[in-house]
User: What shape does this take?
Amino acid sequence: MTPRRLPSITPLLLLGALCAFVLETQAQSPGDAAFQRLDKNQDGKISRDEAPSADSFTAADADKNGAVTPEEFRRYLTARQRPQTPNPAPAPSATTQAQTPPPVDGKPVLKSLPDSDAVRDAAGTGQLFECVHLPGITDHRAGMNGFAIVDLNRDGWPDVVSTTTPMDAVPGKPFRDTLRVLINEGGFRFREERIEIRGSDISQEVFGQWSQIPNLVDLNQDGFLDLLVTRSSQNRNRQETGGNTLLLSDGAWDRFVDASGTLGLRNETAYNRQTSFGDVNGDGWLDVAIGCDNIKNAMGGVPHSRLYVFKPNGPKFEDGGFEDIGGSDLVPDFGGFYNDKARDKAGLRDLDNDG
Assistant: This one.
């Protein structure tokens, strides 16, 4: 007698596995991981204290019972990314942009970003980095060339100094960069501050062209920070830049004298980028390394990096000047003949602890 064949179980196992996978996928929607992170006490709902902001909690709590369920959270994530109008309005200009929400109880409001896996994974607080609203910073529409974070007015709060280019700047046409000084008032609040620049044809509002990266340190040893701003070359579109800008403090944190043309730090023909300060020869005066870039041609400036050593020549700092030793026997591998080398970064540190 021919043995009766048993029905094959392989298709059944495969079907069962697929069903289990589908059910598991449905159970783990994109917002579940974010919900679990926000639900710190694991009670199955998000309370007001667990929510990243008051606005987001109010929007997610659909039934207004003081708690957000997983279903409410999923609906909130879906609705947040849904277009509100069929024809979105054009991006606001610098004068018509929407008001940026101020910090609440000293904490910045989280900034909503377009939906993606990364955004959903980083929802809420407690991450290494968060995208937040900061009035005067995140709502300022301009080209960010470079910035420095430093306690400029010596009140214990880190301030921001930045160089920006206007949004409508077009290569080949005159434009003027801006130097912004943002003083930290605590609680993630910044105010834009005016500084005085004497002996110069530049100001904060008219800060020349092709400004790059600001760096601050007390060069003249008067207790206040001085400001060095690099620039790319005058070769670009034949627009004169005059090279790097050095502003020395003048007895106050918000008062400066333009010493760009007298101390030898201009490096006019180079595409100057990052600077670093350090006392390389141990004479008690800070020296300056400047890394210069190369963008395939010399229109932005040549990649002539420099290591400027300060040489005093009298009782005042202003009596001295900086001398380039880059490419010499002392520093054979930095600066000097530049050919096509691009070193747009520079750093002076005692890595081997030899003093």
